[in-house]
Amino acid sequence: MYILYDSVVSGADSDPCSDMIGNATSQLISALNSTDMTPSVTTETIEASNWGPKRDPLIVVVPITIIYALIFLLGIVGNVSTCIVIARNKHMHTATNYYLFSLAVSDMLLLVSGLPPEMYYHWSRYPYVFGEAFCMIQGFAAETSANATVLTITAFTVERYVAICHPFQSHTVSKLSRAVRFIVGIWILALCLAVPQAIQFGVVYERRPDGTILDEEHAVCAVKRIVIPHSFEISSFVFFLAPMTLITVLYVLIGLQLHRSSILARRDKGSVRLKNQVHHKKVLHVAASSSPKNRPVGAMATSRTTGDATAHHPPPPPPQPPHEEEEDGRKNFARNAQAKAAKHVVKMLGKGPSYPPTHTHKVVHQPVEEGS
């Protein structure tokens, strides 16, 4: 069609204007004839997403692998040892140690399910070779471990707050059976709340605009589908911001209470010392008044016949009134309960900092939904 039109134009009467039009038309027709009109896929879609290298340089990967391996070995050995020691020694079956047992189990779950795939990721970022099922199991284990860790630390913090700030209520709250029920409920809640997060994970491929898979080598484990809108934001608030705020406030109150208790303990020691000094002065005064020099002649004769027991055995200190003894007992009980609770807090604080880095890493490196 284009060639026929070109011949018709060439055969027309020639004048300058027609020659100019004919030349332009001929160039347009030749350009159309030389153009391939079939649709083609450009390379812009292929290069649209920058996957980067499959792994970092060895100078980065090797140290990270060594550190991860040490963390894995030390974590497994330490947590397994903790569980064995607590399980085999009945005298260690306390509420605090049960909370530590729960934290050790959650740490092992995170180490076993998360650290080996993370080590492999640094050596080969893509493709993801573990499959769809393992991707979901990995996400489920990570979410369960994170949920159980933060809920356990929160429950323990509340219990320690009651034991330190309200020691007389700790006997009804801080019971072993109650701690066991709390831990079982924590794990059931952690498992249930991890399911909606886990089913959103899957193997994500790079796709063309029409939805077809571009390259199966470009596959990663990431968020594949959105089941609950804003689920990660809700999880960040429920399992990170709210618990960490509560834990911080309670530990501040615990610290203030311990500070006040130390001040009161110093005051009590000072008052006891003052009472002892007053009593000692009274004893000296009684002993001086009962000496032979200060007695009449008849009293001296009686003292010689009876052995002067009063001079050699000063009278005992006057007994405290019943209400003062009861008050001292309450103070001693509260002080002992606070001292024990403070030791448990120090023991538990070793587990506290383990959760924020884990959750922060999850939030910062949150994968993007497929197709976005």
UniProtKB/TrEMBL annotation:
It holds the Pfam family 7tm_1. GO terms for cellular component: plasma membrane. The lineage of its organism: Eukaryota, Metazoa, Ecdysozoa, Arthropoda, Hexapoda. This is G-protein coupled receptors family 1 profile domain-containing protein. The chain crosses the membrane at residues 58-86, 98-116, 136-158, 179-199, 237-258. PROSITE patterns: G_PROTEIN_RECEP_F1_1 (PS00237), G_PROTEIN_RECEP_F1_2 (PS50262). It is a multi-pass membrane protein. It comes from the Eukaryota. The keyword Transmembrane applies. PANTHER family: G-PROTEIN COUPLED RECEPTOR, PYROKININ-1 RECEPTOR. It comes from Timema cristinae (Walking stick).
